[in-house]
Amino acid sequence: MSDALIRLKDVSVARAGQSVLENIQLSVSSGEIVTLIGPNGAGKTTLVRAVLGLLKADSGEIWRKPKLRVGYMPQKLHIDATLPLSVLRFLRLVPGVDRDTARAALIEVGAEKVIDSPLQGISGGEMQRVLLARALLRKPELLVLDEPVQGVDVAGQAELYALITQLRNRHQCGVLMVSHDLHLVMSTTDQVVCLNRHVCCSGHPEQVSNDPAFVELFGLNAPSLAIYHHHHDHAHDLHGEVCQPAPAHDHVHANTHNHDHGDSCKHG
């Protein structure tokens, strides 16, 4: 795969003698959005840390394109409430960034108005856009986004996922994203990898949502599953694109955002 940015082959990670990841196969190419889903404790963040080179795999191979530029957006950022830090000063912590560069990045993510605001005073959605702007400042070939819609309401989540797709289209970067919300990323991701310490299933979102391994992890009988209802007045093709009007009907999707019983799920 000549346009591959990263490839993981048979990667395993253990902590304190306990297996965290087992025989992971994963690749991300230029212009491709790959989304990791799975219950809490499934190893998603561990896998991201391995991809970033922040932890060493116990076995297997992690290949990265030589001199690969990576932009990373963490799940959360903890800033001391007493620290006088504006959005601009925060972005200028990236080497070589001046006000014009920071402003251009904020314009690209739709957050220019907060450039001089205290970092602690902006909303959750604005914070996620600032973190995304910071990741873009590295001119990344690969964007790694750990729960990019954390702390954002549902309407804001849909906007952020759409923005991520726009950025991919504009820059043709690869995107590796962690998400709980398959129903929201359905139309904005190319491949889904369902993780529960090992790869349970992978493929296009519509394939994965019908896979027995996915249904077992996130089926409607799961004890802590929230159900997301919405009203459809259109149809989708195999790639998740709207293709034609369809008779109005209700769909029920599993919203896995609050699922926290990964260890109680059967797998094997």
UniProtKB/TrEMBL annotation:
| Annotated signal peptide | none
Q: Name one GO molecular function term.
A: ATP binding
Q: Which UniProt keywords apply?
A: ATP-binding, Cell membrane, Ion transport, Membrane, Nucleotide-binding, Translocase, Transport, Zinc, Zinc transport
Residue ranges of every copy of the ABC transporter domain listed in the record: 6-221
Q: Which SUPFAM superfamilies match?
A: P-loop containing nucleoside triphosphate hydrolases
Renumbered to this chain, region (Disordered) spans 248-268
Endoplasmic reticulum found in the keyword field:
no
Q: What is the protein name for this chain? A: Zinc ABC transporter ATP-binding protein ZnuC
Q: Which species is this record about? A: Pseudomonas petrae
Q: What is the lineage of its organism?
A: Bacteria, Pseudomonadati, Pseudomonadota, Gammaproteobacteria, Pseudomonadales
